[in-house]
TrEMBL record:
Keyword Endoplasmic reticulum tagged: yes
Organism: Spheniscus mendiculus (Galapagos penguin)
Protein name: Lipase maturation factor
Entry function: Involved in the maturation of specific proteins in the endoplasmic reticulum.
GO biological process, one term: protein maturation
Cell compartment(s), UniProt: Endoplasmic reticulum membrane
Length: 364
């Protein structure tokens, strides 16, 4: 419910402004700024959900055995949960490792300057949510998370789904030889990122193939103290990463009404979206200023619940941010998240049993 409240409030900022209907278009210069907040919400949701599983010290999460209980002890399992529960233990443990990777490591790619890395992050998040939908009923939550994940896409990629992509332009670029230095560096960085993800997963979770038993061994190869030390070291830098990403988005949006060109890695505005005329450029700039201010304010107050994952980092925030958050806390426009902090039903889920008897001897 907290996620629905926050996503609903962000929809007010993301939805098109139709004050001047005769000049309204599908695209506006500040769209990227407000839509960035959706990506930031998705990041906070996924990263915190992965982190709290380890900070809770739950033995099943640390032992990578959480999913050996989850499918049969969750509130409303689906028919697919029965089949998932029959999977071998080594696969269940590897599934927990994959969950950690998707929830802790992959969200860092949400702000990557390389488009393909963001697409990789999108499909990773969607894969996790689809698997949860197939094995458990959590109402609208997983569908809402998939909707938030669309903030990682751009118009060109969605156009491919709809059959509206600029195939000629794309094919001509792909056939260009030799490739530009930017393309080479981008590919090298992308491959390095995938390699680092694989290396990080192997080192942190002791992944090792047992060829004799034909299974994949895994175990947590770090201690609780090491994890909390790492978390304390990265929390504020992640805030800085979010600030830099937002600043770049704001500066790019400010340039577009006047230059009508893209400064960022994003594709240029759609045809016909260029702002013509000094008055309309000023009007677009005014909208940009209003929405940019609102976005910065939302980002600032969201830092308080986000840094709940490390209270030392939370105490280092500027006191004014805490005052801003306290002023709007009752509206729940920003929240802290942490899904499945502890695995429930490990010792068996309590069941309500009603019994009756006619003779006080035989009970039904």
């Amino acid at each position: 419910d907290s996620l629905l409240l926050e996503a609903g409030f962000l929809a007010v900022l993301v939805a098109p402004l139709r004050l001047l209907k005769w000049r309204s278009t599908a695209w506006r210069a500040h769209d990227g700024v407000t839509f960035w907040l959706v990506r930031w919400l998705l990041f906070r949701l996924m990263f915190a959900s992965g982190v709290v599983k380890l900070t809770s010290r739950c033995p099943t999460w640390w032992g990578l055995t959480a999913l050996t209980y989850h499918y049969e002890t969750q509130c409303i399992p689906t028919p697919g949960a029965w089949f998932a529960h029959q999977l071998p233990v080594w696969f269940q443990k590897f599934s927990v490792v994959a969950t950690y990777v998707i929830e802790i490591a992959v969200p860092l790619l949400f702000f990557a300057p390389i488009r393909r890395l963001r697409l990789f992050a999108f499909y990773s998040q969607v894969l996790l949510q689809v698997l949860i939908i197939l094995t458990g009923n959590y109402n609208f939550f997983n569908m809402l998370t998939i909707v938030l994940a669309f903030s990682l896409l751009d118009e060109e990629h969605v156009g491919r789904w709809l059959g509206r992509s600029k195939r000629r332009h794309a094919s001509s670029e792909s056939l260009a030889w030799p490739p530009s230095l930017r393309a080479v560096l981008s590919t090298l960085l992308e491959l390095s990122t995938y390699g680092f993800l694989l290396y990080w997963s192997v080192q942190c979770f002791g992944l090792e193939i047992d060829w004799e038993k034909r299974l994949l061994d895994s175990k947590v190869a770090f201690t609780y103290h090491e994890f909390t030390t790492w978390l304390r070291a990265v929390t504020l830098p992640l805030v800085g990463l979010g600030f830099l990403s937002l600043s770049w988005e704001i500066l790019s949006a400010m340039y577009r009404p006047w230059g009508c060109a893209a400064l960022t890695h994003l594709p240029p505005p759609p045809p016909g979206a260029c702002v013509r005329g000094c008055f309309w450029k000023l009007w677009a700039t005014l909208q940009w200023a209003v929405f940019a201010t609102a976005t910065v304010g939302m980002f600032a107050i969201s830092l308080v619940p986000f840094t709940y994952i490390d209270y030392e980092s939370n105490g280092k925030l500027w006191p004014g941010i805490h005052q801003m958050f306290n002023a709007v806390e009752r509206f729940q426009v920003v929240n802290s998240y942490g899904l499945f902090r502890r695995m429930t039903g490990v010792g068996g889920r309590p069941e309500v049993v009603l019994e009756g008897s006619y003779d006080k001897q035989t009970w039904t």
